[in-house]
Automatic annotation (TrEMBL):
Organism: Bradyrhizobium erythrophlei
The Pyrrolo-quinoline quinone repeat domain, residue ranges: 37-389, 495-549
Recorded superkingdom: Bacteria
The protein's name: PQQ-dependent dehydrogenase, methanol/ethanol family
Protein family (similarity comment): Belongs to the bacterial PQQ dehydrogenase family.
Length: 601
């Protein structure tokens, strides 16, 4: 690795690192201070909401660029910076550089870290060389590298405190996700569903990196950490609930990867996350429900034991990964106070569940063009309760191998991918960046070889019939499952949203615009064209009494893979290259952090 040390001076940060349990308590307190942004999604509940309101609906139109920072790296810049005390931590896609910038000293580079990684990991990464951000805790910065190593860096000077191999990239296991610090542990998932990996979530000791537990998405109970108390929709899942849904030993190459966001409820002491697609993309080759791919997990962070699970898309036929964020809110439904979990799945359905017991409360389409299902069976006495009803016309399994299934909505990248939504307690609405895209999907037989692609489908993507736009930014009522307002965007909205107490919601576009809209009406209040397309997540913080808004631009990700990797075959990039070919008319590669503020009075 290469590390450059230029200066020090983290001030009060040292007080936070006074022991692992104390560090976590401190982290939780720090996340309540809107001046900083100490977790990848802002807080444990994944709300991406800030109490800052210096920038508000009446003055956001006056925003101007305060400063910029070039990351020196191309490809897709997902995630966003952390702000801890007076320090900002900025990350990049492969080679996964990390910069520590001193906000009190002209944003000077205090230290930088660049790991040495085998470039052969690049072709093993499914959908661009992205990284979704670093985490902070116990005086350390945690980086999940592309080669699936989890590295703990000293937050003061960038020195490597410990490093652990979370998986083997030669077998298709890679790292793109942001870790999460919970109590005395750091949790991290893995990518590799397109390579037949048996995926997992793993907890490591925050002090020394020793593995505490590992929970696989599919397999025998002792590997998935299920017991006789684990429930699904209120009923015990029973023994070998996963094994019974796979043919033979297919679960060993079953996918179900865990590269999305994590949430944590300190009161219930439960961690929540989702699993991805089963391997292969050809459903004919893996009969059964393929549990527990496409599933929401609620686990005990101390030992990984699963309290409850809910599988959203049994026997997935379209690559509708379930890894998108779980947003935790306390709201009333039908006059009853509930601890809720809201999830916008790739399959186009917005789910609201009781996060204490996994009861399904709402399941509705958040894009009106979703057509593969007529809806979810909400009758609790029905044998198919909680399952979506699949329409034969769009069933890639029913139509069989080597049949091109046309007009399926949404496309494989879903009505929303990993780009996280935001929630405002002021409006009690969710603000959701979406994809408005359909596809043709042709499955074919594929054989498994370790470390080689295990996809088995050819795709093409395009806007819904009769329409030209490929994205919407929507406000959603999770209690009723209804769209409150919707703004059209030419391309998918692949940026994470930010809601603020100022009544403003921010997001970025693939062309490169940072946009601010009114939280109640959706009216556009401001936009600014950044140097490259935005697939990063908008962040806000306060420094020296002024509120700032920050976003990484750098086009790429699945939607921008054609630009990022120089691909031209329309079916390349798992079908995205053709669908987003026009993007090159509006933006180009780059990696820049742009920071905005209001003019000084």
């Amino acid at each position: 690795m290469r590390k450059v040390l230029l200066a020090t001076g983290l001030g009060a940060m040292a007080a936070v690192a006074a022991g692992s349990a104390g560090a976590n308590d401190g982290l939780n307190r720090m996340s309540q201070n809107p001046a900083g942004w100490v977790m990848p999604t802002g807080d444990y509940a994944n709300t991406r909401y800030s109490k800052l309101k210096q920038i508000n609906a009446s003055n956001v139109g006056k925003l101007q660029v305060a400063w910029t920072f070039s990351t020196g790296v191309l490809r897709g810049h997902e995630g966003g910076p952390l702000i801890v005390d007076n320090m900002m931590y900025v990350h990049t896609p492969f080679p996964n550089k990390v910069y520590a910038l001193d906000l009190s000293n002209e944003n000077k580079i205090v230290w930088s870290y660049e790991p040495k990684q085998d470039p052969n990991v690049i072709p093993v990464m499914c959908c661009d060389t992205v990284n979704r951000g670093v985490a902070y805790g116990d005086g350390k910065i945690f980086l999940h590298q592309a080669d699936d190593k989890l590295v703990a860096l000293n937050a003061k000077n960038g020195n490597v405190e410990w490093s652990i191999a979370n998986g083997d990239p030669t077998k298709g296991q890679t790292g793109t996700s942001a870790p999460m610090v919970v109590k005395d542990k750091v949790l991290v998932g893995t990518s590799g569903g397109e390579f037949g990996v048996q995926c997992s979530m793993t907890a490591y000791n925050i002090k020394d990196g020793k593995q505490v537990w590992k929970a696989y998405s599919e397999g025998p109970d002792d590997q998935i950490l299920f017991d006789d108390k684990t429930t699904a929709l209120g009923k015990p899942v029973g023994k070998d609930s996963s094994l019974k849904t796979w043919e033979g030993d297919q679960w060993k190459i079953g996918g179900g990867c865990t590269w999305g966001w994590l949430a944590y409820d300190p009161t219930l002491d439960l961690v929540y996350y989702g699993s991805g697609n089963p391997s292969t993309w050809n459903p004919k080759q893996r009969p059964g429900d393929n549990k527990w791919s496409m599933t929401i997990f609620a686990r005990n962070p101390d030992n990984g034991a699963a309290k409850w699970v809910y599988q959203m898309t049994p026997h997935d036929e379209w690559d509708y990964d379930g890894v998108n964020e779980m947003i935790l809110t306390d709201q009333s439904i039908d006059g009853k106070a509930r601890k809720l979990l809201t999830h916008f799945d790739r399959n186009g359905l917005g789910y609201t569940l009781d996060r204490a017991n996994g009861e399904l409360l709402v399941a509705q389409k958040y894009d009106p063009k979703v057509n593969w299902t007529s809806g979810v069976d909400m009758n609790k006495s029905s044998p198919t309760y909680g399952r979506p009803k699949v329409l034969d016309e769009y069933s890639t399994d029913k139509q069989g191998e080597d049949h091109n299934n046309k007009g399926i909505c949404p496309a494989a990248l879903g009505s929303k991918d990993e780009q996280p939504a935001a929630y405002s307690p002021d409006t009690q609405l969710f603000y959701v960046p979406t994809n408005h895209v359909c596809m043709d999907y042709e499955p074919f037989k594929v054989s498994y070889t370790a470390g080689q692609p295990y996809v088995g489908a050819t795709l093409s993507m395009y806007p819904p019939p009769g329409e030209t736009h490929m994205g919407n930014f929507i406000a959603w009522d999770g209690r009723t499952g209804k769209i409150v307002w919707s703004n059209k965007e030419q391309f998918s909205v692949w940026s994470g949203a930010l809601a603020t107490a100022g009544g403003v919601v921010f997001y970025g576009t693939l062309e490169g615009y940072l946009k601010a809209v009114d939280a109640k009406s959706g009216k556009e209040l401001y936009k600014f064209k950044t140097p490259s397309g935005i697939i990063g997540n908008v962040t806000t913080y306060e420094h020296n009494g002024r509120q700032y808004v920050a976003v990484l631009s750098g086009v790429g990700g699945w939607a921008g893979i054609g630009l990022a990797a120089g691909l031209t075959d329309p079916t390349a990039g798992l079908g995205a290259v053709g669908g987003y070919a026009a993007l090159s008319n509006y933006t180009a590669l780059g990696g820049t952090l742009t920071v905005f503020t209001l003019p000084q009075q």
